[in-house]
Amino acid sequence: MEVFEAEFRQLEEALRRLRHDSxxxxxxxxxxxxxxxxxxxxxxxxDSTSLASLTAGNVAATDGLAKLIGEREFSVLxxxxxxxxxxISIVARRAILLVIFDERxxxxxxxxxxxxxxxxxxKVFDTMTEKSTRGGADGAAEPSPFSEITDEDIDALFSE
Amino acid sequence: xxxINYAAKEINCKIVYYGPGLGGKTTxxxxxxxxxxxxRKGKMISLATEADRTLFFDFLPLDLGxxxxxxxxFHLYTVPGQVFYDASRKLILKGxxxxxxxxxxxxxxxxxxxxxxxxxxxNLQDHGFDLLNVPFALQFxxxxxxxxxxxxxxxxxxxxxxxxxxxxVAPQGVGVFDTLKAVAKQILVELRQR
Lengths: 160, 194
Known about the structure:
By secondary structure, chain A is an alpha+beta fold. Chain A has helices spanning 5-22, 48-68, 107-138, 151-157; strands at residues 2-3, 26-31, 36-41, 76-80, 85-91, 95-101.
């Protein structure tokens, strides 16, 4: 997956709105492979890398369960804690939206706002896919910054 | 598939450690975790059984610095090696950028090694990958054991496509970083050619 500047800002803006409208603590957007994409809210309270990896694992395992019983997917997961709760949903079939909320919000409100935000996020993902495919097809539109990577660059990563 | 965020200037790659049960995949990650500076690593997560066998996966995020202005992160995963966890193993290969195969050098584990490579090949295919085209490194672990099979014989049995191959004693770190480097390099070279 490739995320470009303009779409990244749009994703962040959509997440900020969702966080505000749902009164959630934090909102994370995660790639189905476990990579953190963007977030909004009290994100510094959470380890976003671990959160992304475990959420993707959780969704992958649940997807596996769905297939075992003949369902295409379970599109929404909800984990209820004593204080904080987690609402997980699939966006644009390839990303995961994770909302962490407490008693300042409710499951109903989160579900409602997530639905609206998902439609918005899906549009941004469509643009991203289109850009990525176009870049791959004509290639020359924007030269990849990685075409210039040298063996020295790579060795330097491991020098310490 | 490598995740590139042009806005945050980040490249994230996923490396999966594969191999038969009790071969040393988790030990590889533990050694890397212990030897990496705190500011270059995230939390290591192990989803294991009470008997410390990997149940779903181990996860270790590494931040190796930057390349052409992009922060380069490697997310290392292990799979559960035991045969009956195949459904979980397959899930972890989703979106993989490179694979390290940790083979157990003990003669009596050769059959398990061979079976595990075949399983890797099949599970990659289910995700639309061909092991021939995936960045790959092979590690012969447990070289310190008396019943370790000779290298040449192991190479003949296990080498898939003349991939870089390393001898290792994972608890002592022998060969651990060399193996990781070999697969990481292939991933970055592929990125350059994309």
